[in-house]
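Input (structure):
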């Protein structure tokens, strides 16, 4: 990303002048070095951190993700109104921002980032299940059938505290625009505020977190599928696994971030199934690793770069 931000030395000097023991810096940390006291804190995505002195696009969380070789890595800090989002994997696989004629249903860049040392994220509006077309970000390269069966998907999300309508974070579908008619390999939030990972190898299969993510704070969601089965993580901690999961549904499709179809996703009549298909919240730092089933240790290490 490499964008320069204002330095915070003046805040540190003001605090020292008035004799404060702790300086609280509200907002996203800056890439310039800060001279704030060692006890200073900053709040990012609703989480509080001890202030660090410097950061850059090649260190911390972005560096940890890049070092593992993602297929694509969309940091989603692109300018407001951009029609594509940059790929930070080094593979040149940008995302295309799809919009519709209904502004209220479109994704929007320019939200406050959910991680340390970044400036932007994607705002996904709450989109009801009845809506036939809404904004999304898509990698427009068709992944041929049977679709990836060894992969890792990850993103940071933040939804309002108490959100009870759920919605999709990212996943795979057979349409590059509009509503997919075949869809799985997705991360979503259910109506109870739990993170969920779903595949469809002939029947709906869902892993749900024990940790609630509808608390107004940013959370790191990761799902993996491969020879070890299906696994779901929240904030670097395993939430559920099933070793019998080895393949997802057989079809060609596209990776998408944000809104898409979630109809029928879960047992019939299950009240925790997402009411909305568009998650009413913020999505950041989305990445896909095709052919890689990241380990629990690798997932925890990525999480640790943004929490201390």
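Output (sequence):
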């Amino acid at each position: 990303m490499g964008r320069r931000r204002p330095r915070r030395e003046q805040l540190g000097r003001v605090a020292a002048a008035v004799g404060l023991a702790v300086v609280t810096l509200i907002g996203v940390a800056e890439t310039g070095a800060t001279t704030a006291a060692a006890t200073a804190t900053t709040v990012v995505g609703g989480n509080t951190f001890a202030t660090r002195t410097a950061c850059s696009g090649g260190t911390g969380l972005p560096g940890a993700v890049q070092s593992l070789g993602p297929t694509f890595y969309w940091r989603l800090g692109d300018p407001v109104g951009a029609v594509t989002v940059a790929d930070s994997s080094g593979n040149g696989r940008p995302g295309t921002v799809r919009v519709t004629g209904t502004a209220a249903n479109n994704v929007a860049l320019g939200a406050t980032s959910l991680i340390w040392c970044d400036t932007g994220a994607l705002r996904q509006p709450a989109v009801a299940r009845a809506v036939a077309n809404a904004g999304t970000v898509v990698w427009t390269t068709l992944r041929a059938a049977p679709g990836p069966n060894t992969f890792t998907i990850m993103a940071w999300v933040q939804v309002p505290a108490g959100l009870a309508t759920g919605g999709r974070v990212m996943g795979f579908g057979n349409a590059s625009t509009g509503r997919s008619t075949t869809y799985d390999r997705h991360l979503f939030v259910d109506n109870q505020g739990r993170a969920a990972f779903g595949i469809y190898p002939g029947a709906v299969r869902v892993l749900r977190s024990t940790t609630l993510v509808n608390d107004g704070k940013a959370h790191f969601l990761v799902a993996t599928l491969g020879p070890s089965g299906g696994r779901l993580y929240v904030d670097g901690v395993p939430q559920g696994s099933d070793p019998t999961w080895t393949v997802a549904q057989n079809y060609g499709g596209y990776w998408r971030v944000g809104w898409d179809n979630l109809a029928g996703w879960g047992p019939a009549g299950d009240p925790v199934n997402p009411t909305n298909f568009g998650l009413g919240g913020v999505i950041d730092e989305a990445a896909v690793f095709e052919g890689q089933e990241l380990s629990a240790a690798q997932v925890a290490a990525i999480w640790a770069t943004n929490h201390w």
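Notes: The longest strand covers residues 281-290. Residues 152 and 224 are 4 Å apart (CA to CA).
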